[in-house]
Recover the amino acids of this structure.
C-alpha cells in the first residue's frame, strides 16, 4: 500500500502538486463509494479524502452540508463506511478520513483509530479539533500509525505553526477564513499562508477550501505541495447521481491535467 | 461539597468544556479571553456595566414571596423576577456585558444565534444602544413560532437570517452563526446567548449572568434572614440557571435544574440532555448531548423554543457529575399547566421556559411540603411572547376534543 509520504514524493518527482479530491461517504448513496473511489483513482488522485457525514457540519458550506444530510437521511452508518473502505483501500491511493470530532469521541477514540487503521485508512482530518485540544487523539492515532493532520488558517499564529512542526502526514492549509465551498476568486492571502507554513514546517502542505476549477487548482498547485478539491467535486457528483462515477472521473481528470502542466513551482 | 475552581486555564470544568472549534477561530478566542480578563479587572468597565444594568435594564430585579402559590402548595415559594428586566428576560444581563466588551475590543459587527428570540432581542437591543448593527441567526421553525420576537428584532434595527438547514431550530442557528464567525472573524464579535460554546464563553456568560444570583442571595438573606432550601431554574443551554446557581454554590442549598421533557422522556421528543444524553462535543465544548450511537446529534423537542437545544453548558455537566446540582425534567403539558397556574395565582404570566421550573416545584410539592422547603425559583422571563402560541394550542386542543 502506498503511503501519504510516497504520494507526495511521487508528485514532487513528477514536478507537480499532489491532487487530493474529497467525497462524502454515503452521497449520493453508500453503494457508490467504492465505484467513486475507483473513478478518482483512475483519474489520477494521489490521496483521497473520504468524509464521514455529520449532522452538524459547522465548517462546511451548503454543498457539503447537503451531501452530509442526504447521506445521513439514507441511513449511512459509521460501521458500514468502515466496511466499504476496508474492501477498497488496497486498490486505492492513500485514504484519509475527514470527520468531525463527535463521531470519533462517541465511537471511542481508541476504538475509532483501531477501526480506521484496520480499514486501511492512513490519516484523519478533524476540522473542529484544534491542535491544542488534540493531545489524546494524537497519542491514539500514533499508536495505530495514523496521521492526525494539522490544519492551519490565515489567522494561525506563529505559536501554532511551531506547535505542529512534528506532525505526521501533511499540513492542511485552509485558504480563507470561512467554510468549505467554491469561490470565484482565490483569496490573495494564500501565497502568504504558504510562505509562512513553508518557513515553519517541513511537512508537505496541501491547500483546500474554495478550489473549484482546473485553473484555480493550477494556480494553487504552483504554490503548494497539494491541492484539495471538495465541494466542487461533490456538486459534480450530485448533478446526475446515476452518472456520478463518470462525472467524477471526468472532473478529476481535468484537475489532474491542470496540475500536470505545472512545473514552475514556487 | 468540594467544587474546584472552574474552569481551569484550558476552559475545562472537570472533563467538560474545552475549545472544539476550527483552527481559524483559536486566535480570536485567545484574543477574547485576554480582553475579557482585562475588562474584568478594569474598574471603568465594571462601572459602565453596573450603571447600564441599573439604569437601562432596571436592576436589581425584585425578589418576592409568591403568596397565593405558597398557600396553595403549603410551603414557601419565592420568585426572582428576571421577567421584569428590560426586554423581558435575563438575556440582557449577558448581551450588555458582551456588547460592551465588543466595543472595547473595537469590533463593529455583532452576530448572535437565537432560539425563542429572547437572546436575539437582547442582542439587538444592546447593539442599538451603542449604534451597532446586529445580525441574528434564527432557525426557520423558530422564526415561525416566535414571529413577535422577529418583528421586535427588526424594529431594533437587526438583520434576522432565518436558517433553513437541519432541524431549523437553535442548534442549526448556532451552526450558522459559527460559520459566519469563521468567515468574518477579524471584525466580528459573536455574542453567544448561553453558557455554551468554546472557552471562554461558558465562563464569561456565567459571570455576566451571576448578577442574578448575587442579588437573589442578598435579597433572600435580608428577607428571610437565611438561605432558601432549594434554588430552582430551567435549563436549556443553562444561562439563567447557572446565573442564579453560581453565587449559591458554596451554600448548603439544593440547586435544581429543570430540563424540558417535551412529550415525555421516553417519547424520543424532548430536550433533556443531562437527564437522557451522553457526553459529546457540539458547538465548541464537551458536555452532555442528545445523540445516537454514531455521534449524530438528535433533534431536540420542547414546547418552549428557548429550551429546544440538544446540548447543555459544560458547567452544568460538571455540576451533575460532582453532584453539586440535581437535574429534573418537566413535560410540555406540565409546563403549560404551570404557565396557567402562575398567571391565576400571582398575576404573573411566565415564559414557557420559566414555567418548566415552576412545573417541577408543583410536581414535587408533596416532598417539598414534607421537608418544609423554602424554594427560590428563577422566573427567567415573561410569557408575553408565548401567549399567542399557547392560545393557538388551546384552540387546537379544543377543536380536537369536539
Amino acid at each position: 500500500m502506498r503511503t501519504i509520504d510516497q504520494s507526495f514524493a511521487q508528485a514532487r518527482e513528477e514536478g507537480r502538486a499532489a491532487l487530493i479530491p474529497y467525497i462524502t461517504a454515503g452521497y449520493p448513496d453508500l453503494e457508490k463509494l467504492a465505484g467513486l473511489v475507483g473513478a478518482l483513482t483512475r483519474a489520477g488522485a494521489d490521496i483521497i479524502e473520504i468524509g464521514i457525514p455529520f449532522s452538524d457540519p459547522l465548517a462546511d458550506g451548503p454543498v457539503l452540508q447537503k451531501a452530509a444530510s442526504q447521506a445521513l437521511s439514507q441511513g449511512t452508518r459509521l460501521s458500514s463506511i468502515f466496511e466499504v473502505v476496508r474492501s477498497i483501500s488496497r486498490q486505492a491511493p492513500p485514504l484519509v478520513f475527514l470527520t468531525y470530532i463527535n463521531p470519533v469521541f462517541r465511537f471511542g477514540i481508541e476504538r475509532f483509530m483501531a477501526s480506521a487503521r484496520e480499514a486501511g485508512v492512513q490519516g484523519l482530518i478533524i476540522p473542529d479539533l484544534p491542535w491544542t485540544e488534540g493531545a489524546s487523539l494524537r497519542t491514539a492515532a500514533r499508536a495505530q500509525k495514523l496521521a492526525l493532520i494539522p490544519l492551519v488558517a490565515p489567522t494561525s499564529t506563529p505559536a501554532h505553526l511551531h506547535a505542529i512542526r512534528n506532525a505526521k502526514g501533511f499540513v492542511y492549509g485552509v485558504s480563507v477564513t470561512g467554510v468549505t465551498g467554491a469561490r470565484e476568486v482565490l483569496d490573495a492571502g494564500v501565497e502568504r499562508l504558504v510562505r509562512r507554513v513553508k518557513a515553519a514546517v517541513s511537512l508537505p502542505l496541501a491547500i483546500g477550501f474554495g478550489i473549484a476549477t482546473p485553473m484555480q487548482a493550477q494556480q494553487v498547485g504552483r504554490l503548494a505541495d497539494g491541492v484539495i478539491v471538495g465541494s466542487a467535486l461533490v456538486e459534480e457528483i450530485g448533478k446526475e447521481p446515476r452518472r456520478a462515477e463518470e462525472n467524477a472521473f471526468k472532473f478529476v481528470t481535468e484537475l489532474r491535467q491542470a496540475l500536470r502542466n505545472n512545473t514552475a513551482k514556487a | 461539597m468540594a467544587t474546584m475552581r472552574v474552569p481551569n486555564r484550558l476552559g475545562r470544568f472537570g472533563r467538560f468544556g474545552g475549545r472544539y472549534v476550527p483552527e481559524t477561530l483559536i486566535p480570536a478566542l485567545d484574543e477574547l479571553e485576554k480582553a475579557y480578563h482585562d475588562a474584568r479587572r478594569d474598574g471603568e468597565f465594571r462601572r459602565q456595566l453596573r450603571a447600564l444594568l441599573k439604569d437601562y435594564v432596571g436592576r436589581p430585579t425584585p425578589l418576592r414571596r409568591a403568596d397565593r402559590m405558597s398557600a396553595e402548595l403549603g410551603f414557601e415559594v419565592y420568585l426572582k423576577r428576571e421577567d421584569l428586566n428590560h426586554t423581558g428576560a435575563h438575556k440582557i444581563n449577558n448581551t450588555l456585558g458582551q456588547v460592551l466588551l465588543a466595543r472595547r475590543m473595537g469590533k463593529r459587527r455583532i452576530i448572535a444565534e437565537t432560539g425563542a428570540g429572547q437572546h436575539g432581542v437582547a442582542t439587538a437591543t444592546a447593539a442599538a444602544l451603542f449604534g451597532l448593527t446586529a445580525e441574528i441567526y434564527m432557525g426557520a421553525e423558530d422564526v415561525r413560532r416566535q414571529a413577535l420576537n422577529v418583528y421586535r428584532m427588526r424594529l431594533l434595527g437587526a438583520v434576522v437570517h432565518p436558517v433553513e438547514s437541519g432541524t431549523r431550530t437553535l442548534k442549526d442557528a448556532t451552526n450558522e452563526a459559527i460559520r459566519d464567525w469563521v468567515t468574518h472573524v477579524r471584525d466580528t464579535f459573536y455574542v453567544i446567548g448561553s453558557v455554551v460554546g468554546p472557552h471562554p464563553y461558558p465562563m464569561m456568560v456565567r459571570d455576566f449572568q451571576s448578577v442574578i444570583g448575587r442579588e437573589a442571595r442578598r435579597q433572600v438573606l435580608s428577607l428571610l434572614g437565611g438561605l432558601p432550601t432549594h434554588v430552582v431554574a430551567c435549563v436549556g443551554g443553562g444561562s439563567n440557571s447557572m446565573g442564579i446557581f453560581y453565587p449559591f454554590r458554596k451554600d448548603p442549598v439544593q440547586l435544581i435544574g429543570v430540563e424540558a421533557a417535551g412529550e415525555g422522556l421516553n417519547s424520543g421528543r424532548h430536550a433533556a440532555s443531562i437527564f437522557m444524553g451522553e457526553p459529546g462535543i457540539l458547538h465548541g465544548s464537551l458536555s452532555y448531548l442528545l445523540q445516537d450511537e454514531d455521534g449524530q446529534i438528535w433533534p431536540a423537542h420542547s414546547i418552549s423554543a428557548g429550551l429546544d437545544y440538544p446540548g447543555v453548558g459544560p458547567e452544568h455537566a460538571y455540576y451533575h457529575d460532582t453532584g453539586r446540582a440535581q437535574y429534573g425534567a418537566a413535560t410540555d403539558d406540565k409546563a403549560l399547566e404551570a404557565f396557567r397556574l402562575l398567571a391565576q395565582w400571582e398575576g404573573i404570566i411566565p415564559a414557557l421556559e420559566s414555567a418548566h421550573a415552576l412545573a417541577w416545584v408543583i410536581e414535587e410539592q408533596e416532598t417539598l411540603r414534607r421537608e418544609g422547603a423554602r424554594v427560590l425559583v428563577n422566573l427567567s422571563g415573561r410569557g408575553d411572547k408565548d401567549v399567542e402560541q399557547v392560545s393557538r394550542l388551546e384552540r387546537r386542543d379544543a377543536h380536537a376534543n369536539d
